[in-house]
Task: structure prediction
Amino acid sequence: MRYLILSDIHANLEALEAVLEDATGLYQQIVCLGDVVGYGPNPNETTLWVRENCAAVIRGNHDRACAGLDDLRFFNPVARAAAEWTYAELGRENRDYLARLAAGPEAFDGFGMVHGAPSNEDAYLIAPGEAGPELEGMASPLTFFGHTHLQGGFRPAGGAASEIDPYELLEPGADDRLLVNPGSVGQPRDGDWRAAYAIYDGGTRQIEFRRCKYAVEPTQKKIVEAGLPSMLAERLALGR
Ligand code: ZN
Result:
């Protein structure tokens, strides 16, 4: 079985549609690592698509916040404004769906899914020092994560961890410990504005990182027209 691994769609419908076109024929099942909504202008469309198409989904911090489960005082002003706008925009069924999503870690078909880190759904795994203890403690040797919007991940390196280069094709053994981030579909932050995702083949165990271009301008226009903070539109073109 081959899986399309998605994370951090963030209500960016144009980026999601481009990924689906780019990945045509490469997968049989789809999983999503959270942050279906927040920041972007199409929360109902992306939530409905995830409801109808993903075999496994876990929640992200923005799903929680936009479904009204979190105290928004701890969000930065831009994320808070976007969460309040999204909460009001979401239809009841979509909001209820997001509110009911499970927290990671979840095990699915032999691999793990978390939004932030195996030990804490809200933790950001950015530096190898943060990933080392997580690689040792996680229940699934191969675990996919998101939250940082940085494509790549971490592998053990002599009692610590080292970064995975997203340009390499991974082929871990059955017992190899890996934390793999497919990158963000809807708001990449690794300096590459193109939508990010990964394909995992459960048979060969190959993991391929992929990027695809999408029409950024229509998304930016919708963000501005919705009255969302303009920096949310600007950052899409920068991949920051
Ligand atoms: Zn996110």
